[in-house]
DNA sequence: TTCATTGCAAAAGTTTTGCACGTGC
DNA sequence: GCACGTGCAAAACTTTTGCAATGAA
């Protein structure tokens, strides 16, 4: 996504396209490694040593609220973020602690037919192919 | 579940059956409302005013580690706990903030065939039948 | 008796708040 | 120019740690 496209996206959500917002969104979309607040903060410090943690919290919270990014709560320790908002699952390996994306083809549920579903999050955990051999 | 059964369950997991553990587990299984640390603490205070928050953290963490309870991370603010460890989904209503349980009949995924899956968590959000009318 | 577990107090870590200043529109 | 957003420092809140005392097995 180009900087101009990101700007347009923010403006269509009535957000000002500040350099900080653009940089954070760009970082998330170019690093689909599901980083947490601290990783985003450390990256932003490199760009501008005056960056404040408050800004990271503000930006991530507002982007999540507006549905532009996902908050991934698969980890007990920290919330991770993902700029890919298409429906997909997350697998956490207990060996290497990495998060893997996977496709969700179909889900069949009972008991929420009359509910209005807005978001669907799916978290699996276990061992990835490499770690299960050990 | 009777107190004796809970005791046996703890012992079979090499946990000592302390009154605190039993009371916390009993509270969770009798109150399937997905309470958080603070709610468990407030309940325990009524039973014994000397209860420490540390104990709540210790007990919930160890029970979760051993798979005797589930940690539900559907809420941004707090982790909730559930003594029902059978596979089921959780729906969070953005209107009344309640958590509803639902059945998962089938999930079809692509990309993790070679993974060894130990846990499956599914979180939906949106509006419950009552709240969607407003 | 022994050692896991508890409760307390303090420390560490995380997130929010209040406010002055700066900047996108 | 105006309102939104940022950065800073402090406050608030959450969770962990170290340790002495307790009590389950």
TrEMBL record, chains A, B:
Presence of the UniProt keyword Metal-binding in the record: yes
UniProtKB keywords: DNA-binding, Metal-binding, Repressor, Transcription, Transcription regulation, Zinc
GO annotation, biological process: negative regulation of DNA-templated transcription; regulation of secondary metabolite biosynthetic process
Binding site residues for Zn(2+): 93, 96, 128, 131
Gene3D superfamilies in alphabetical order: 3.30.1490.190, Winged helix-like DNA-binding domain superfamily/Winged helix DNA-binding domain
CDD domains linked to this entry: Fur_like
Keyword Translocase found: no
Cofactor: Zn(2+)
InterPro entries the UniProt entry points to: FUR (IPR002481), Fur_C (IPR043135), WH-like_DNA-bd_sf (IPR036388), WH_DNA-bd_sf (IPR036390)
Ranges in coiled-coil conformation: none
Pfam families attached to this UniProt entry: FUR
Cofactor note text: Binds 1 zinc ion per subunit.
Gene Ontology molecular-function annotations: DNA-binding transcription factor activity; transcription cis-regulatory region binding; zinc ion binding
Family: Belongs to the Fur family.
Protein name: Fur family transcriptional regulator, peroxide stress response regulator
Taxonomic lineage: Bacteria, Bacillati, Bacillota, Clostridia, Eubacteriales
